[in-house]
Amino acid sequence: MFIEIVKSKIHRVTVTEANLNYIGSITIDEELMDAANLIANEKVHIVNNNNGERFETYVIKGERGSGVICLNGAAARKAQPGDIIIIMSYAQMDFEEAKRFKPAVIFPDTRTNKLI
Questions:
Q1: Residues forming the active site
Q2: Kind and range of the H or E element at 32?
């Protein structure tokens, strides 16, 4: 039996930009991506703490150390600059493996989106 569990989580990060006229995705600072074990084009689930929106998109690598969290395309309608969001990805694995697996969870500073 395979189950789906949290693989990566960026907990409480601030949206810095929303670009409606761009191909849909979320641009994430490469430093945050590395710390959370996320890669470009990976599917992510986003939860907006400000308005309750929940949606899926994929990751685009942002400039390292920039703190950028930019929602692109239709996702830009789901959150605005200043909103606090949680970004999660999931993995499917065997039930026994899942019991031992430890997800990468990071808690950036919500003022700067930098690692603490």
A1: 25, 58
A2: helix 30-35
Local structure of 99: helix, strand or coil:
helix
Scan for tokens 């409606």, then name that residue. Answer: 20
Side-chain half-sphere exposure of 102, counting CA atoms within 13 A: 1
pLDDT tens-digit readout, 35-53: 999 999 999 999 999 999 9
> What's the 3-state SS for 62-97?
ECCCCCCEEEEHHHHHCCCCCCEEEEEEEEEEEHHH
Which tokens belong to 73?
A: 């395309």
68-77 pLDDT, tens per residue? 999 999 999 9
Query: What CA–CA distances, in Å, run from 36 to 22, 68, 79, 83?
Result: 24, 15, 21, 20
Which of 87, 97, 86, 104 is closest to 3 using CA atoms? 97
DSSP 41: T
Q: How far apart are CA 1 and CA 39, in angstroms?
A: 26
Measure the CA–CA gap between 12 and 60, rounded to whole angstroms: 19
